[in-house]
């Protein structure tokens, strides 16, 4: 059997690497991946690795296979197999001592994984590090392989590819900490071998986080530290030396490392050597990767010692100057390394917590002002440096989409740095620095021989990035900037930024003195933007929205001009290049202006804004049912989405309610003839949802007809949007006694038809949108009209239905179901939920054992680990509501899990968590503790499958299946 499997592996590898047919290679790859999960893979991989005739491809595949088997499938082996596996791996490590390196590395990782799995005593006295020390001394000829294993050991402690239990992983970390001195001694003994220097540095870097027992003063004088710091000036070993130095920095600030004073001997020697690299940053002959490594070291130093730097000593300022040197580099990958330092320095300078040790408020304020005075010039320099990094390149028009995306990323990053600077300098002072840049750039823009728009655009981009930080009382610079904007050339990218700048300063424009007459010329600029290109039109439309939101009262007397702009944009004629998506900004702009009008004027204005939207829909309806059914959805939704924006943003409930009543026949025609069309129905339901949200109970004259429409159409077409529209109706009208009859009928019909659709987990998976909106609606019913919902048979059937769908993988649908269940369990303990306690208890007590089993299955692998908090909350709610009963249900379920997956101690721990949850443990504590049990049950595929096979979350013979409606 083994010989046959070995031959098949060789054939598959030959096909994978050498067969000319893609389909054959794909099939071979699939077979090999499946083979790696088999029990035979252990013996075949081991045998081929020992086989002298195996080629490189076979060796690489088999070393990867053996490594992954040790990591994830170690529990497949019989208890006595450890020793033979250890012996085999040791032989292989010596065999591949001199290569191939890829194979040797995989063998080292496999040995490290084995060490994580087994107790320290299995390696003899002192564990694997002492064992390795003995082997290195006894067999120095295999030093290369032994040294790589020494490097890999601490790295693998954080590898979650290793399917070890959490307590075993913690014990392994503890064992390594206890052996750190032995490891450091081994590395020190290898220092004198030149060809091993890079490996020694790499090993030292790996082990530093375990060196808790070595004091800072000892490290400061340690020969390995001196070797690393001296290697910072070596091109050959620079990267390895930087890694060590970076780890040493982290050691000095790590939790439990002692006080800053205790760490100061090491900090001083590190800072001294790092500052000695400053000239290399500016050395044009230096390799870019080396410059990146040095820059990373400066950034690490700055971020780690920011609390010391923020005190503003002379030495601190030298470090800040060095970091400004890094920021001045032309490559984004290099200068952006400092951005996190500037953010942390900003936070330290402005937050009160940095100064609490100074005692009185007066002393705190004095120290804060002293530090800000010291660092403001540095932040001014920072603003000046980064503001020049956002200029459009001359060849931008040739950029690929990926390059353009990268350029936008640079701009976003610089914007964040500018905002950090404004927190230190204040928006007005930052604006002053940037206005100097703008003035210089405007001069070059007017250069007749070589006019350049890019510097002006860059300065404006930076100015608009800090707009929210500039005070609306600023009167020195912004009037000049606003007067300048209409005078700038209409180059596309520049005009786009000009429009964005206008929008960004909308609040300042509203507060500007009337005598400045700023608004009319700026509106003219926005008009130009809307007719230049789609990109400028998008920026202009958004700016128009902001202007109308913030300056709405200034527009109330000039509605004719606004309506003219609106009609041109909506109609698509007149030269505007506003897309249908961007036109929504203009719809919103006029809607917020209408909100400022008195009701009678608003009624007229609303009619005017709705006509260009409603008329095209009515024209389509008048062409007959056949045309309405066949027209592309886009021809309807473009208008309906505009109507949604109007209903959402005109805050005159009665006026909007009248408009909804007036236009209801049009909407009803679309409902009736397009109910099969998901896209159109989502659009029209969204429009109705915003109408309900804006109008509230003022919409009473239409709500009955709307609910009747929803009920009828949902029975025929099962569109999920009818459910989410109903959720909004329940939220607004749920507590209105006059609507009780309507809503009771709505709840009964919608839910009775939904539970017929969702009987099995396969049904839920096929219709996640229905599941999501159904349980969102059910939760709304519990919160807003429990009296109409909880005492009904439909409530009980929805709980049964939820049990079938808990393990749906769709994130939003799953969250809605889990939220519904926790709402059910929490209801009796709510302020007025006591009336439902007996009813809910009866339902849950009948289903508790099954429900608990499914929830425990969800926790232990049936749902992704990212759903842990939601699952934990349901279990917490169930525990608090049903105490001892829940503990019994949990015990039954946990006892189903086989001992290969959970030990007796782990079962007890699992039950204790549930018991503590019932006693009042916080969600955070429960989630953390459940997370550890969840990891145990998911530690590899074999264990996870064992747990799920035992708990059978999809086995619906163990759940209450919804009954057919009569």
From TrEMBL:
Annotated SUPFAM superfamilies: ARM repeat
Keyword Protein transport applies: yes
Primary residence: nucleus
GO process terms (BP): protein import into nucleus
A Gene Ontology term for the protein's cellular component: nucleus
Alphabetized InterPro entries for the sequence: ARM-like, ARM-type_fold, Exportin-1/Importin-b-like, Importin-beta_N, Importin_beta-like_NTR, TPR_TNPO3_IPO13_2nd, TPR_TNPO3_IPO13_3rd, TPR_TNPO3_IPO13_4th
Entry superkingdom: Eukaryota
Exportin-1/Importin-beta-like domain mapped to chain residues: 100-244
Locations listed in the record: Nucleus
Domain Importin N-terminal span(s) in chain numbering: 28-79
Keywords, sorted A to Z: Nucleus, Protein transport, Transport
Similarity comment: Belongs to the importin beta family.
Protein name: Transportin MOS14
Taxonomic lineage: Eukaryota, Viridiplantae, Streptophyta, Embryophyta, Tracheophyta
